[in-house]
Amino acid sequence: MVKSPQSAPATLPRFRAVPFLTPPTITTAVLTERQRRELMRIGTKVHLTPRTIAYREGSAADNAFIVLDGVVKGYRDMPSGRRTVFAFLFSRDLFGLAERGRYLNSTQAVTQSTLLRLPMRDLAAALKQDGDLQFEFLTKITHELRESQRRAMLITRRDAPGRLAMFLMLMAERVAIGVRPAHVVPLPMSRSDIAAYLGLSLESVSRSAAVLEHRMLVKFEGRHAVRLINPEGLAKLAAAV
Amino acid sequence: MVKSPQSAPATLPRFRAVPFLTPPTITTAVLTERQRRELMRIGTKVHLTPRTIAYREGSAADNAFIVLDGVVKGYRDMPSGRRTVFAFLFSRDLFGLAERGRYLNSTQAVTQSTLLRLPMRDLAAALKQDGDLQFEFLTKITHELRESQRRAMLITRRDAPGRLAMFLMLMAERVAIGVRPAHVVPLPMSRSDIAAYLGLSLESVSRSAAVLEHRMLVKFEGRHAVRLINPEGLAKLAAAV
DNA sequence: CGGGTCTTTGATACTCTTCAACACCCGTGG
DNA sequence: CCACGGGTGTTGAAGAGTATCAAAGACCCG
């Protein structure tokens, strides 16, 4: 069986990131073998069952985390009881960098997950010493800033079907890095999580899904997968803004 | 005349950021004198008149920037002609870290501004060599990620007056760092910029401003300032979500 | 003082939210 | 193996709020 980069063993941490320098200048492979071992030395593996909370908003931010395997969501409960999901964190994502020593939002496992827990003090010390390693972190955080802006773009849209279309495109391109677009895209999270991510009501997500199906763009298969029937049409709708 | 940190001369760069480590661990002053001089050595000052574009979306991202003085906006034009403002960048803000050597959005001076232009290659080299300096950048980018998430929270709100209230609170706390809440808050940007930032129509912003005034929460003074009449009430409305 | 830009105000249509009831799926227990 | 129950997801109807189109008003600069 051929080992693809997608399914690399979750033993050593990696980053999912696009560097900001142009190709000819890239001297990084988004974590070298040595750097990954260094991170493993600093951190400890943590296994999370679905719905387990990694940390809560407001608690002491002693650790940063790297997702080795699985899906985690970062969210925040609003005073009104509404919940907002800021990000779905997948394998090779970094999270847990907080403000003034306190986490600003909570994180919960969506699926069975494995995390690498990195004590902030040790991590900070290691980063300051190893400029190249730290540069990878800088690249990664910048990448996450851009992803956050993409979500902001998504939320800016007013029409629910358009938002859902953009979301599906995001999920699709995540599983199809470099490969031809996957035609069946897994959706590990619940409808309610999707709604909280899209800033819509649960019902609107459901209706939008029906709209997309009626337009013959996609076909939802069970609760946790979509088949892309007409990827071009979906992309066109997603890009409309 | 006493020189406050707020009005420090725009000769040396600074960062506006909240560190992620807890106070006892903070060994940084958000750029030491030496680091600031190092950045000045790498970069060059650029003066921008209002409406001048620092760079355009899609162009080669050869430089990062630090705002020394003035206000700059980061925006993106959607296919539909709609414009989204992602961030207002103030003194001590960092911007221009791009993806794969291309800027993802455009930046334009809102007011007369002074920037420090930092060639990416030199900057990257300097950061890799000076772990402490790079840690400041990491802190700063993390700070901007949080600010991006705050905007996302803002956009998630459905009611226009609430969004505007949150925006005014943001602007107010920016000018009142450590000081008692300022009662007159400058709004350098146009209504249309505010609308693009809030994800609302221009008219909705105008109407929301009227609502806030009728509720005796604020009083708009001219086009570029607000007086906070009832800061607690405004904060309460802003926090409602 | 005048032109042009920016902003405010008004009326209508449209979409999403909300509340409510129903259908579905899955694990559990009989 | 089948029935049951709770969480999850879907569908329906009414109401709230903003976007849009249109026009008048305020402000700024030359």
Structural account:
With 241 residues, chain A is α+β, with helices and mostly antiparallel strands. Chain A is built from seven helices and eleven strands. Chain A has helices at residues 33-42, 120-129, 131-156, 160-175, 191-198, 202-214, 231-240, and strands spanning 44-48, 53-55, 63-69, 72-77, 83-89, 94-95, 106-109, 113-119, 184-186, 218-220, 225-228. A four-stranded antiparallel β-sheet of chain A has the order 1-8-3-6. The first copy, chain A, is globular. Chain A starts with 32 loop residues before the first helix and ends with a helix. At the A-B interface, helix 2 and helix 3 of A face helix 2 and helix 3 of B.
Largest interface: A-B, 53 and 53 residues
Low-pLDDT windows of residues of chain A: 1-9
The number of strands of chain A is: 11
- Discrete helix count of chain A: 7
- Sequence of secondary-structure elements of chain A: HEEEEEEEEHHHEHHEEH
Beta-strand content estimate of chain A: 15-25%
Task: Describe what is shown at a glance.
Two copies of one chain form a homodimer. Chain A is α+β, with helices and mostly antiparallel strands.
Which helices and strands occur, and which strands form pairs?
The structure is a homodimer of 241-residue chains.
Chain A: H1 33-42, E1 44-48, E2 53-55, E3 63-69, E4 72-77, E5 83-89, E6 94-95, E7 106-109, E8 113-119, H2 120-129, H3 131-156, H4 160-175, E9 184-186, H5 191-198, H6 202-214, E10 218-220, E11 225-228, H7 231-240
Helix pairs in contact in A: 2-3, 4-6, 4-7, 5-6
Chain A binds a DNA duplex (30 and 30 nucleotides) through residues 158-160, 190-192, 200-207, 209-210, 222-223.
